Target: Phosphodiesterase
Amino acid sequence: MRSRILAHRGYWLEPGEKNSLSAFRRAFEGGFGIETDIRDLDGELVVSHDPPTHRNAPMPFPAFLDLYRSMKADGWLALNIKADGLAQAVTENLAEYGVANAFVFDMSVPDMRGYLKIGATTFTRRSDVETAPSYYAPSQGVWLDCFEIPHSPGEWIRQALADDKRAALVSPELHGRSHEAAWAEWRETVNMAEDERVMLCTDIPEAALTYFRGTT
Model:
């Protein structure tokens, strides 16, 4: 199950570590997957949540993938695409480093067409404000998020799985809310320890592993 727990911007211990080498290394050492953010800077792919500058010295995306490969990691990589026009470069980088367990999501709807066209593993989005997910049929998974409601309801998970999709759940602490009610409902909805189709994006990966492993 570790590989399907997505450490949000790496396994960080303090906010300043998000999307850092230490956070990524800690996640890979723990066997966890990672959710991180991809942008471009002067024509090169970089890991950065906010618009990057050379002053911020963002990690090059190939360096991130090289770390993944060199540490023999096999956790899922959820690549949050923050800029348009990167589909070809992203997929070429993943192929070059032999990364199979990766998917892209959160790009603009028009840009999403490009990823689907070239066969990239692509997740659409469903939330309380995105009730009709874009390109649902050809997407391999659904990123389940929430903004104005406490958390994604279990029925969304059941629907995604019934439609032969993977489901990636966004834990509420990413939005500054308690995760407890969400985790309790999700544990009643699906056996996350055994169902390989379900992932969880969280800021507290060790706590999630302990909690959901209890479903076995």
